[in-house]
Amino acid sequence: MLSRTADNLFWLARYVERAEYLARIIEASTRLANLPSAYAGSSNEWESAVATAGCAPLFYQNYDKATRETVIDFLAFSPDNPSSIRSCFEVARTNARSVRTALTMDMWDAINSAWLDLGKYRASNLKQDEQLGGFLSFVKETGLRFDGSAYRTMLRSDGYWFSRLGVMIERADNTARILDVKYHVLLPDAEHIGGSLDYFQWSAILRAVSALTAYHWVYKESLKPWLVADLLILNDQMPRSLAACYESLVRNLDSLSLAYGRQGPAQRAARAIRTKLENARIDDVFQSGLHEFVSDFIADNNRLGAAITQQYLT
Amino acid sequence: MPDDVAAFDEMNIAGGGVRPAYETLAHWLKSVPEGLLETRAREAEALFRRIGITFAVYGDAESTERLIPFDVVPRVLTYAEWATLSGGLTQRVKAINAFLNDVYGRREILRAGIVPEDLVYRNPAFRPEMNQQPVPHGIYVMIAGIDIVRVDGDTFYVLEDNARTPSGVSYMLENREVMFRLFPELFAQHRVAPVENYTDDLLATLKSVAPISASADPTCVLLTPGQFNSAYYEHTFLADKLGVELVEGRDLFVKGDIVYMRTTQGPKRVDVIYRRLDDEFLDPLTFRPDSALGVPGLISAYHHGNVTLANAVGTGVADDKAVYSYMPEIVKFYLGEEPILKNVPTFRCREADGLGYVLDNLKDLVVKEVHGSGGYGMLIGPKATSAEIEIFRQKLKKDPENFIAQPTLALSTCPTLVEEGVAPRHVDLRPFVLTGRDKVRIVPGGLTRVALKQGSLVVNSSQGGGTKDTWVLDC
To answer: What is the pTM of this model?
Structure first.
């Protein structure tokens, strides 16, 4: 297929996934911000949302203070933020239009309807949490619908594999960043690790990735930071975990190399990262620092994205 | 068009009765329950919007993507009428191809004084780069969309020969699809000739004109300027139905005078390019150096016979409105036959007699720029204010060569669903003629465009016209 088509499919999938992730970040922050004051931390949940989304510098160029209003406006609607939900949907739709022949009707419909429906929402209409909830559901449902359409209707050939690669690279990045929330949401000095605020913060993270129930099924224990990290990093049964994303990345890259009859740097990079994850032990991760581990992973993941681009998409 | 000009009604016979081709349809129109047509029209619109069949209107900031209004009442032609049209179209396109081979080759028609030399040489669509450069298999216009109007029961005129990159065929095909979905009962009652094989015909045509050096299964692509082009929907539609890659200039590159496309598996050689990009954007090395839409080196590869462009470069010289006026002579000169399809009588303002007549009769004439299209830059005399007529008079005097004029035609009307119910509206017809190395292919039908405003003669989609399905009936 045309490199440009593959590139568009890859990024289309990434942008839809990213929009969903932003909705999850906003949801987690709302939850943390709504904790009763007895549990309240330093009220920096909205700052952490911006930091987690990886766009703090740009945010502070546009706003003085991170509040519910400014952060939702910036992360959800701002045309000045190239990674806002609105921008994600817009780029996704532009990409979709330029490769319509490579999309199934259902996929096009999902992204086109989402773009048309997005116009109904304004930051000013989301002052109530209930209204915000409706909006966040709409964004998450768009992700589900797009992903589900791809899963159910696309031919299992290179177009599908490139689109899965986009989803998984983005998802791995997002999961890593969500884990890093805890690094950015500093516990107030008086609060101790393992205290009730700590607990709520970890549970908000699990909820954000819809994994709270899974946690209980897997560990049958109360929330422990290292077990949350184990679930989201190393447990390949957990579909958002870094390990699961890399299972999928390796598999889809293998499908490509089989179909094309040759493999290259992208296949090797993906396997190397998977091996790193397979060999990691959660105790060691905490020993050397979760934040450091996550930062290294994000850099590795970016390098894989660049290798895929180099090998197939230019 | 003044309403006082009696237009030929394709359904109703003046003084009562219905023309035979429309009998079943007229009966059905009478018997449909109140409101059904309106309901179906809304369903059709929803279908079009959902599928995303849009048309970008230049300079329309509010809606860069607009639906072309679709009329649910089909236009009906008999098979006998179609046979005449189809014969005339084939003849016309043969003559156009002979003309193009000649003006870029031996120039016999110019030497014979049939067509004035300067009309060709000074024509902005004439491409000197094509002089003495044979094109693969001698075919210039593989895809033509010839605009036809009807003025009475027997007379069809050719209004324009679109020999560059005619669009609209996706609407012909989608209109039929939508009609199938909305009115299955009508298809059960009529024997409508199919048009769905158009895309198969197009692919066969494109493959047939591949360079001789190409493999037995040549690689064809469709070259689009991109998603901001007004016909982008059509480009994606056709690429999809043809099963070929929809490429932009940046997807192609030329190496050693061979054209390749960039794919995920490395470079792949391209043999035939159905280009929906105008000549001057094709290759920045040959034409506009500022164009980023084209492919550097494409024309050199073309001249080396390594790739076929459909349509060829420089075909615009044949659908220039001034050259159009010579088309009857062109048909006779190359084919030795009488033209089956007539031209609309045309006054050439470049000639003193013509200009004099036009200036004296502006209020009765339609005046067009010879290189204009899309209904822009024209004067419709009977509809114009005296101030507008004066402005055009000055334009004409200043630059007479730039204009032709035609009498305002009483374009035929077809029953059309409008606000006040089903009422006659003026229509034209664009059939699509495919010329391959082996044969000419035309699917029975075409795109009928309809002026939705009462009395209006402007059917262009860029001017708010609509479309309807065109039925050729086996009756």
So the answer is: 0.84
